[in-house]
Amino acid sequence: MTEIKNLTMEELKTALSELGEKPFRAGQIFKWLHTPVQSFEEMSNLSKALRERLREHFVLTVPEMARKQVSAVDGTVKYLWRMQGGDCVESVLMHYEHGNTACVSTQVGCRMGCKFCASGQGGLKRHLSPGEILDEILFMQKDSGEKISNIVLMGTGEPLDNYQNVLKFLHLVSCSGGVNIGQRHISLSTSGIADKIEKLAKEKLQITLSVSLHAPDDETRSQIMPVNDAFPVERLMRACNTYFDTTGRRISYEYMMARDVTDRPWQAEKLAKLLRGRPSHVNLIPLNEVAESPLKPSSKETMRRFQQALEKRGVTATVRRKLGPDIDAACGQLRRREQGGNP
Ligand code: SAH
Ligand code: SF4
Predict the structure, then answer these.
(1) Are 158 and 114 contacting, i.e. CB atoms less than 8 angstroms apart?
(2) 61-92 residue pLDDT tens
(3) Across-strand partners of 281?
């Protein structure tokens, strides 16, 4: 059966007419689908007969909150959702001065195999559907009672490995009949699947593309990110150029600082050379230690020096603040502890 939250307004109209229902009901139903309703029964302005027909023909996905942790340090909230079928995914709600930001997962697990990442340790279990990604937003808003104004696709999963579903999600979440979060308030983070970046460029979205570069040289990058063997740095940068040329949107580069691996002075120099002349912004992120990896974070002093080396060469760079440190809410810490007996 079709998951009804995956449908756009147009698709919903078509589906209703195929059932012999009045297509104008689509507007009412669509509105309900973008609220955290738990059942068709709750759609009180629809006739009982219509609610019954919807129940017979569609699945309404409703995640169950399996765990919630609130940071005592900064109020960041980490949620663990149990999706229908039992798979668990995490999302994080962060509070910034400019509004609430939701960090959502796009897959159950991940197959990209980055050496430093806890999310990908168990491989990929399955893709999330567009409606399931939307559910993370809807149910975080419900639980917190707060409006989410920004979204980052930086939870578990590689968004461009789940291309069609993620694209549909971006459409659903930014459309005016739904939660209506503007694309300019959405960032998509990718490990660097170059051909998909070029495909995404053609969609001409207003979202911010964030590329997890983490090393400017192929030798280091291949050591920590297997995706670099398929799409080495130069190939990736070509795709980034295409993305900027097609969309006019400045690209954000994530650069993880790992002691003696990615934080050496020559790497700052090489990174600056790589980005020179490209409208870009670098986010320096301290590595979060994960039990399975020998990588260690760089010192504050090294990070500061790395940042200065970039700035001196005309590349803007900021050091990212770590939110929710006491609840492991940072990127790369999200994982399915509930499954597989992880710590
Ligand atoms: N798969 C996508 C998005 C999810 S990961 C991607 O890789 O970009 C979100 C971010 O967390 C990425 O920049 C990723 O490289 C980073 N990350 C993963 N593990 C990390 C760790 N242990 N420490 C710091 N950043 C990490
Ligand atoms: Fe997947 Fe991103 Fe983790 Fe790499 S860093 S394994 S792409 S979630």
Answers:
(1) no
(2) 999 999 999 999 889 999 999 999 999 999 99
(3) 252
What are residue 82's DSSP bridge partners? 64, 88
Distance 264 CA to ligand 2 centre (A): 23
255: which residues sit within 8 A by CB, 6+ positions away?
213, 214, 262, 271, 282, 283, 284, 285, 317
Name the packing angle between helices 194-202 and 233-247 (round to 10°).
Answer: 10
Whether 90 is catalytic: yes
Cα torsion 304, 310, 311, 317 to 10°: value is -70
Q: pTM for the full model?
A: 0.95
Q: How far is the centre of ligand 2, averaged over its atoms, from the C-alpha of 32 (Å)?
A: 33
Clarify whether 3 is annotated catalytic: no
**pLDDT of 175-201, one tens digit each?**
999 999 999 999 999 999 999 999 999
Residue 177: HSE in the Cβ half-sphere, 13 Å Cα cutoff:
16
Q: Whose CA is nearest to atom 11 of ligand 1?
A: 331
3-state SS class at 210: strand
Q: Determine the Cα–Cα distance for residues 230 and 235; give it in Å rounded to an integer.
A: 9
C-alpha Rg value of the chain to the nearest Å = 21
Strand order in the sheet with 99-103: 64-70, 77-82, 88-96, 99-103, 150-153, 186-190, 208-212, 251-257, 280-286, 317-319
Q: Which two tokens stand for residue 296?
A: 């260690």
pLDDT digits (tens, 9 = 90+) for 139-159: 999 999 999 999 999 999 999
Compare 336 and 52 and report the one with higher pLDDT: 52
> What's the rounded Cα separation, in Å, for the pair 119 and 156?
5
